[in-house]
Structures are given as C-alpha cells and as structure tokens.
Amino acid sequence: MTGKSDTLVAWDDVLASYDPALGLEVHVELNTVTKMFCGCPTEFGAEPNSQVCPVCLGLPGAMPVVNRKAVESAIRIGLALNCEIAEWCRFARKNYFYPDMPKNFQTSQYDEPIAFEGYMDVMVEGEIHRVEIERAHMEEDTGKSLHVGGATGRIHGADYSLVDYNRAGIPLIEIVTKPIMGSREKAPLIAKAYVAQLRELIVALGVSDARMDQGSIRADVNLSLAPVGTGALGTRTETKNVNSLRSVERAVRYEMQRHAAVLDSGKAIFQETRHWHEDTGVTTSGREKSDADDYRYFPEPDLVPVAPSRAWVEELSGTLPENPREKLDRLQADWGFSDLEMRDTVGAGALGLVEETIAAGAAPQAARKWWLSEMARRANDSGVDIAELGVSPAQVAAVQALVDAKTINDKLARQVFDGLLAGEGTPEEIVAARGLAVVSDDGALGAAVDIAIAANPDVADKIRDGKHAAAGALIGVVMKEMRGQADAGRVRELILEKLS
C-alpha cells in the first residue's frame, strides 16, 4: 500500500485548540566536481557503483581529505543566510547502521558547525516572516537503496534490494531552522515559502542546481502541537525527504491535522520519522526518531579541523548574490507589478520562472499571465510544482513572441503548450505541424465574414445603425467558423467595412 489515511481533525478545529511549532531541515547537494572526502566524480545518473573508491566505500585504511570547494560553498551559503561563520570547526562521526551507508557512520558536523545563528525573511500573503537559522553544517550524503518488486518502491513488500554507492560521499550542506513559533494557520505557507526562497538563493549562489526532482535539495519537516496559548513545544515528528514545494505545504497541513486527532483522543504523539506519500497526500510511520545521544557522536579522528581565515570569509562575502528582500523590491519596480501581483507571483513559487521568462524576451505582464494562469492550472491538474511542469521559461517566452508577432493568438498558444508538454518540438515546429497559424488573408476572412453576416441579419442591422459594439457577436461567429485561427482585429475591420 502507498499510505493509509489517518484520522484527521478539521483544519479550523486544529487552530482552535493547538499552536504548531515548525522546524525545517533542508539538505543541499553541492555541485562540486568531486565528492566531499575523495576524488570520485559526482555526475548524476552514472551507472550504479561506477563512481566509488576505497574512501567513499569505507574500506579499511582509506583516509579522507576535505574538499576545499565544498567548504567554500558552505561558507557562502552561511553568509547568504546571515549566519556567523566559525573561526574553527571540525567534523564528527554520526554512528548508525543503514545498508546504504558503507562506513556505518556518517561524517558530519555536530556541536561545531561551520555556520550558525542566521535568518531568512520570507513573504507570505504580503507579510514578512523571519525564519531563524540555527545552523548550516557540512556532511556527506549516503548511498541509495533501490527496492525491487512490490507496489510502493519501499522495502516492505519488495522482492529484493539493491544498493548504489555513487551518491555516498557527495557533499551536503544541512540547513536547520530554529522552531518557528506563532505561525498558526500560515505554518504550511511559511514552510513552502521558506523552502522556495532557499532554493532560489542556492541557485543564485551557484553552489547547487537545487533540483528537488533529482534529490539535490530535500526537505525534512519537523512538526509538533501544543495547547493554544501555552507557548510550549510538543512531541515532534519528522517527515523525511519531502521532494516538492507543494508537498512541503501539504505535509505540514496533514501532520497538523493528524497530530490534533491523536492528542484529541487522549493519546501521546510518538516521536518518529514519517514517510510522505505524494500520490495519496498522507504520511506513514517510519522508525523511532533518534536523539543526538543515540548517534554516539565523537570527533572525526581522520580529519583536521577547518579554520577559515577571516580574510577568506571576507573575500567570499563579496561574491554573494543580491539580498532576496532587496531583489524582490527591485524586480517589482522594474516590472511595474502591484503589491498584489507581486505577492501572488511569490506565493505561486513562480518568481524565478517569471524572471527567467522576462530575461528571455517576454514582457513582464505577459510572463506573469502565462505562469500564474495557464502554467499554474496545468501544474495543479498534474499534481506537481509549477517549476516541474515540463515547460521552460525560454519556451514560454518563445510562445509569447509568436503571439506578439500575431502568428498565433492566446487561444492558439494554449494548444502550443499542449504540444510542448507532449514533446512535439519547439513552439515554431508545433505551430507548423498543427497548422495553428492565425489566418490574416483577406480572401479567406472576407468569405467567413460574409457567411456570418448572412446568418445573423439582426446583428448586422445593429451595426449598420451605428452600434459597432455588436460586431463582437459576428467576430465570435467567424472565430468559431475558423477554429479560433482568424485574426480578430482584421475580422472586426472587415465587418465594419462591409456594414458601414
């Protein structure tokens, strides 16, 4: 089974009785050429177990060496999140057993992270919410287990399992927030907005492609409830590896309703990890959640401490992208968007998409129109994030260029998007193959206008009497006759010419 639905409490009833405390742990897979502690390549999609060596396989006697570029990326991420950068920090061994972790421990950072005490301001429904960052630390990724057979892709019900260690040792930065309190009904939206803005920041820094669909950025959602007004922290659960912005919002909302049902029944919340099921929109129990003591952390004896000089940190601070808040204000001014238009663009997770579409040549309002209407609708129907729909900003700009050139109109453009999603080629190729070009030839248009006038004499008489607004009815008839491919402006001109 892909997840059995729990008993849930109605949303309004949750808010009437409980306050949520939210925490997010985001893992960012860095785009370094080699792994965190060895020289193995990090290319995504290589043949299983083809990018491994004695170090990342944890073989006896193999000695790790820290990747300088990964340290640099960690510092830049920390600086961009307004963190303090440690003058001295070190790695630790996080001990636990899992089949895809060849050393039976993960080389991570524990009590001495490279970056700490930061924040990020995010906008939700026109209001700024500050998300405080507890730490951003360096670690290595684990391998990947593939469970073959069964219906869920998980180990339960599988016929057998395979392990690919290519990912073992890939550099990760884990960014951990402090508990987000007082968010109330906005908790799901704040979680989504935070991960969305963090992803945009990571891409702007150039340290990762931050593709959630490929796992290069993954979010773990920690949630607890406490009686309303107490300001307390309840027992938390951690929903692991939520891999889309839409799912971050849905997972927070689901867990709030599930926690409330458990607490209302008089039972206690079990501290555990949970699995998110994208298809059914529910979480299911994973394993008991370990505390730090259970991992038996101790300093990594095979690695020297990391002590970035203040001069290096200062140098890296000069490489940071524009502040997200300042960038938002600048873009709004450049694009001429109202506060509501900008808020909706940010809320839809479409800011970067609109920005790229404009950069590719589309006018700001046109770019916004396509992403927040047509693309958002299609993404919602498909149950995916708008960025994962399969249409690129460059393609949207190319479609709009065809509209601007009057090759197609907005209605025909929607059919071009159908073709893009079906993989039928470029917008120009789709227009040609589907025969979608707008008809501007006076001969064909004139014949269609004559037919419309003859079929609607009452409307024609109104136009002859000077009621030119009635021409819209005849234009609609012509457009229907020509399957939406008539040049509506020229049709109107011909109607008025014939009836004046």
From TrEMBL:
<dbReference type="InterPro" id="IPR018027">
    <property type="entry name" value="Asn/Gln_amidotransferase"/>
</dbReference>
<dbReference type="InterPro" id="IPR017959">
    <property type="entry name" value="Asn/Gln-tRNA_amidoTrfase_suB/E"/>
</dbReference>
<keyword id="KW-0436">Ligase</keyword>
<dbReference type="InterPro" id="IPR023168">
    <property type="entry name" value="GatB_Yqey_C_2"/>
</dbReference>
<keyword id="KW-0648">Protein biosynthesis</keyword>
<comment type="similarity">
    <text>Belongs to the GatB/GatE family. GatB subfamily.</text>
</comment>
<feature type="domain" description="Asn/Gln amidotransferase">
    <location>
        <begin position="352"/>
        <end position="499"/>
    </location>
</feature>
<dbReference type="GO" id="GO:0070681">
    <property type="term" value="P:glutaminyl-tRNAGln biosynthesis via transamidation"/>
</dbReference>
<keyword id="KW-0067">ATP-binding</keyword>
<dbReference type="GO" id="GO:0006412">
    <property type="term" value="P:translation"/>
</dbReference>
<dbReference type="InterPro" id="IPR014746">
    <property type="entry name" value="Gln_synth/guanido_kin_cat_dom"/>
</dbReference>
<dbReference type="GO" id="GO:0005524">
    <property type="term" value="F:ATP binding"/>
</dbReference>
<dbReference type="GO" id="GO:0050567">
    <property type="term" value="F:glutaminyl-tRNA synthase (glutamine-hydrolyzing) activity"/>
</dbReference>
<keyword id="KW-0547">Nucleotide-binding</keyword>
<dbReference type="InterPro" id="IPR017958">
    <property type="entry name" value="Gln-tRNA_amidoTrfase_suB_CS"/>
</dbReference>
<comment type="subunit">
    <text>Heterotrimer of A, B and C subunits.</text>
</comment>
<dbReference type="GO" id="GO:0016740">
    <property type="term" value="F:transferase activity"/>
</dbReference>
<dbReference type="InterPro" id="IPR004413">
    <property type="entry name" value="GatB"/>
</dbReference>
<comment type="function">
    <text>Allows the formation of correctly charged Asn-tRNA(Asn) or Gln-tRNA(Gln) through the transamidation of misacylated Asp-tRNA(Asn) or Glu-tRNA(Gln) in organisms which lack either or both of asparaginyl-tRNA or glutaminyl-tRNA synthetases. The reaction takes place in the presence of glutamine and ATP through an activated phospho-Asp-tRNA(Asn) or phospho-Glu-tRNA(Gln).</text>
</comment>
<dbReference type="Pfam" id="PF02637">
    <property type="entry name" value="GatB_Yqey"/>
</dbReference>
<dbReference type="InterPro" id="IPR006075">
    <property type="entry name" value="Asn/Gln-tRNA_Trfase_suB/E_cat"/>
</dbReference>
<dbReference type="Pfam" id="PF02934">
    <property type="entry name" value="GatB_N"/>
</dbReference>
<dbReference type="InterPro" id="IPR003789">
    <property type="entry name" value="Asn/Gln_tRNA_amidoTrase-B-like"/>
</dbReference>
<keyword id="KW-0808">Transferase</keyword>
<protein>
    <recommendedName>
        <fullName>Aspartyl/glutamyl-tRNA(Asn/Gln) amidotransferase subunit B</fullName>
        <ecNumber>6.3.5.-</ecNumber>
    </recommendedName>
</protein>
<dbReference type="GO" id="GO:0050566">
    <property type="term" value="F:asparaginyl-tRNA synthase (glutamine-hydrolyzing) activity"/>
</dbReference>
